[in-house]
Design goal:
By secondary structure, the protein is mainly α. It has one domain. The chain contains nine helices and two strands. It has a two-stranded antiparallel sheet with strand order 1-2. It is globular and about 50 Å long. The protein starts with a helix and ends in a 5-residue tail after the last helix. This is DUF4240 domain-containing protein.
Length: 172
């Protein structure tokens, strides 16, 4: 599986669709793959999850939607991957640049940059076919890379000026 094939499969067709629809689209695409391709896809997805395990991105998730849990940050990284290669790589280079893209859906009048269990879809398909699990790809990190973000409004405004202006609310 090439990077290009991976991104074609994982990128959502409609960034503002309901998360379940986005997950169902990926599931539909992945069911056409054979088991080796499915394993290769899962390995690439795991690598992208590991690559995005950074405090700078967690800080961006915090500014956008108040993300303050490991599970929520995992859902955020799944969502970020689903936005495609350009958005993903631009945000890895500078998390605040996420504000330059119109890709954040709204749920109950609040930004909702999360996809629940998007990273598990390939494994679930593989397991239903083979009754075996895909090889585990460890994250290799006990903590996100980089320096932990400070959750004080003043600091967030300084580090994430574009995201802060676009998404920050005093209710967080």
């Amino acid at each position: 599986m090439t990077e290009q094939q991976f991104w074609q499969l994982v990128t959502a067709n409609d960034f503002f669709a309901d998360p379940e629809i986005i997950a169902d689209e990926l599931k539909s695409k992945l069911t056409t793959l054979d088991n080796d391709q499915l394993a290769a896809f899962d390995k690439l997805f795991s690598q992208k999850m590991r690559l995005s395990y950074e405090w700078s991105l967690w800080g961006a998730a915090y500014v956008i939607a108040g993300c303050n849990s490991e599970y929520g940050f995992s859902e955020f990284r799944c969502w970020l991957i689903s936005r495609g290669q350009t958005v993903f790589e631009t945000c890895l280079a500078q998390a605040d640049n996420l504000a330059d893209f119109d890709v954040v859906p709204v749920k109950d009048d609040l930004p909702y940059p999360f996809l629940d269990e998007y990273d598990l879809i390939a494994g679930m398909i593989y397991e239903s076919r083979t009754e075996d699990e895909l090889p585990f790809v460890p994250s290799g990190l006990s903590q996100p890379r980089g320096k932990r973000f400070k959750d004080k409004s003043k600091e967030l405004k300084k580090v994430y000026p574009k995201l802060y202006q676009r998404f920050w609310t005093q209710g967080q």
